[in-house]
Write a structure and sequence with these properties.
- There is one protein chain.
- The chain is α/β, with parallel strands linked by helices and 546 residues long.
- Helices cover 21% and strands 30% of the residues.
- The chain contains eleven helices and 24 strands.
- The strands form three sheets. Strands 9, 10, 12, 13, 15, 20, 21, 22 and 24 form a nine-stranded antiparallel beta sheet that branches.
- Helix 10 packs parallel to helix 11 (308-319).
- The longest helix has 17 residues, at 162-178.
- The radius of gyration is 25 Å and the shape is elongated.
- It starts with 48 loop residues before the first strand and ends with a strand.
Length: 546
């Protein structure tokens, strides 16, 4: 699509990040299943890789890093693919690829357009060869999208027709092979519309020269006059049909959706998630285009967080195990062994472990509190919707009390041995007495586990069966949104708390009194009032129970 006709990456490419180790061995493709596009370079044996092009502000090193890190914090996991755009004249790689690799991602390079006649005449052979050597030296998988969207009308003057484009593609591919850059997967990427008209197929360089079939597709409604709202299924089906016919893995290389009616964009993500799982067996990479282009004539805002509903839809997709083949939360970057502060109790401490359990596989319940009422919840009068305190615009919910409890409670449709509770919290007023942020109960109402906040702001795990408190030393700051995640498994008797995608040191515990108890209900806030008058004020938003 119109993609990066536009993102002209600045020439000042900085040196590779110091003190990070690049993988010394090349990652190999997952087990090759054969057929269904599941064999080839860097293709997961099942599911789909998740990636982004994401831009917020200038493309400085600090902005790029902070933006991707923030997106991963929202997701609670690492991205599989980080997408970058470069001019044809750029020297590859830059610091971006080294940084990605050191942080567990696979870089994807969109290498821009050039006159194919010049390529075919050999004028760029040295440049191509040097870049092949540079990418080979990464010793890590790299996706390469050269001259994407060749059928776009503004580019036909440089393609010089189907044959010249194919010839140039094959020449570049052959030079990479001669240099031994087998860690580079060649991704042929046209527009999704080009696969409807047949022009994308006409530019195709041939199965021997293409590792992945790709297209860029956007839901142009409602911004583009005359456009109809289109599902992921409709946009990308022709590309998938072509990939299947050629037994190639498919990549959706740029994906974009605009805001429609309230909640419609979030629903678009949810529908896309299910459509991919049920109807796109060859789709092995899902890469969203996260940028606001509305300041340019005829372009629109494709950002993920244009609404709470949209962000929730994206997060739900990204946490689905089908799109999260690595699973689990983003690991903490702390290298020192975490310390556990002894709790003031005579009860033996639960064992502290280092690896949280993986999240359960499907969404049980989700609420972004955008509705007109909190009818899905049993709640105290002191739990109210708020437009002032909402994580990404829209509405959140605030529980405030100066005497007793303030809470929301929800009974799940069926009890679960293990759940992951993920939500955004904001501490508006720390509690006068240690108070619960989230509490899980079994079918009889007996408490299984609670994540509490102390008056100091320290987050702790409480085992209601024993009264055992496990302390962390980690402080939740006042007045800013924090992502709190509780990983709970009653079968194994384990629990982990993560803040902003990183496991809290000391708050991975096992052997609690909750062993064998199934989760039947969830509470946000604190029922309180039984033994002491409590005062606190907490805000919640974008809750997901999995």
């Amino acid at each position: 699509m119109r993609s990066t006709r536009r993102r002209q990456i600045r020439a000042a490419l900085l040196l590779a990040v110091a003190s990070v180790g690049v993988a010394s061995t090349l990652h190999q493709p997952s087990a090759e299943a054969g057929g269904n596009g599941r064999s080839g370079k860097f293709v997961p044996a099942e599911g789909a890789l998740l990636g982004l092009w994401s831009r917020r502000g200038d493309m400085t090193q600090a902005n790029v890093k902070a933006n991707i890190t923030n997106k991963e914090t929202q997701l609670g996991r690492k991205l599989d693919i980080d997408h970058h755009f470069y001019k044809w004249e750029a020297t590859l790689p830059s610091w971006k690829e080294t940084w990605d690799i050191s942080n567990g991602r696979t870089p994807m390079i969109a290498w821009s357009v050039v006159n194919t006649l010049d390529v075919n005449a050999g004028a760029w052979d040295t440049h191509i060869r040097n870049n092949a050597r540079g990418l080979k030296a990464l010793n890590h998988p790299v996706f390469l999208r050269w001259f994407w969207e060749p059928e776009w009308t503004q580019r036909t003057a440089l393609t010089n027709g189907y044959a010249e484009y194919q010839k140039a593609w094959r020449r570049i591919h052959n030079i990479f092979q001669q240099e031994g850059a087998t860690n580079v997967a060649f991704v042929y990427c046209a527009t999704a519309w080009g696969f409807v008209t047949g022009t994308a197929q006409s530019y195709y360089p041939g199965d021997a020269y293409v590792d992945w079939v790709c297209s860029d597709g956007y839901n142009w409604a409602p911004g583009k006059p005359g456009s109809k709202w289109e599902s992921f299924e409709k946009i990308f089906r022709p590309t998938h049909d072509f990939a299947v016919a050629h037994n190639k893995p498919m990549m959706a290389g740029e994906i974009g959706a605009q805001e429609g009616a309230a909640g419609q964009k979030g629903a678009w993500f949810t529908e896309a998630r299910e459509q991919v799982k049920s109807s796109f067996p060859n789709l092995a990479a899902f890469v969203y285009y996260d940028e606001d282009r509305s300041m340019y004539a005829g372009e629109f805002n494709w950002e993920l967080d244009t609404s709470t509903s949209s962000l929730n839809g994206w997060i739900g997709l990204g946490r689905d195990p089908y799109f999260n083949t690595k699973a689990g939360p983003v690991p903490t970057t702390t290298t020192a062994a975490p310390t556990t502060t002894a709790a003031p109790t005579t009860t033996a401490q639960p064992t502290t472990t280092t690896a949280p359990p993986p999240p359960p596989p499907s969404t049980v319940f989700a609420d972004d509190f955008e509705g007109t009422a909190l009818s899905a919840w049993t709640r105290s009068a002191k739990a109210t919707q708020s437009t002032t305190h909402a994580q990404a615009g829209g509405k959140g919910v605030v529980v405030t009390t100066s005497n007793g409890g303030a809470y929301l409670a929800k009974t799940l449709s069926s009890s679960k041995a293990g759940v992951t509770v993920d939500m955004w919290i904001k501490v508006l007023q720390r509690p006068s007495v240690g108070s619960s942020l989230v509490h899980l109960r079994d079918g009889s109402g007996t408490g299984l586990i609670s994540v509490n906040l102390r008056p100091s702001g320290e987050v702790v795990i409480r085992d209601p069966a024993t009264g055992q408190m496990t302390y962390s030393g980690s402080i939740v700051p006042n007045g800013s949104w924090q992502r709190l995640t509780l990983f709970f498994n009653s079968t194994g008797g384990t629990a982990t708390v993560a803040l902003n995608g990183a496991a809290v040191p000391g708050l991975t515990v096992s052997g609690g009194g909750w062993v064998g108890g199934n989760v039947a209900s969830i509470e946000l806030g604190d029922v309180g009032g039984q033994r002491e008058a409590k005062s606190f004020s907490f805000a919640f938003d974008t809750l997901t129970v999995m």
